[in-house]
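Morning run. Coffee first, then this:
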Amino acid sequence: MIPPIRPFKPSYDRTPKYSVKEVSEMTGLSSYTIRYYDNAGLIPGLERTEGNARLFSDYAVSWLHLVHCLRTTGLPVEQVRHYIRLCQKGDSTIRERGEMIFRQKKVLQQQIRELQRQMEVLKYKENYYKEKIKNPENDYCNPRTHVIVQEPAVTPE
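And here it is:
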């Protein structure tokens, strides 16, 4: 189950309190993904128990959200690692970090535009099939019976 969308708000609480399973339930990320990000060194502030189990604070969960966002928008693992190193260096890296975020925002905006174009195609096909289910004759989109008599009258919703 995907958790509801909430505004991103980083936490500075470094009290270790969540297991991988709990973080998985909180974030909607798989345990595998969470472990992968940790193994790749992408979650600063993550602690371990004496038995070596991962223990997340709200601070580490905030980093996990940011890392997943950057990865989902296509930033390579090495670039995410670079971003984290820049953060750890301090204020002298603010400009470079900002530029990385600005670039990724542009990448995401382009991805959204492309997804919107794909959604329009699916809406068209959805309406087409709703009509064909009511009236299965003359399936103009089936390559097997592709004989165009006239354009079908399908209006988008």
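The beta strands are 47-48, 54-55. Good start to the day.
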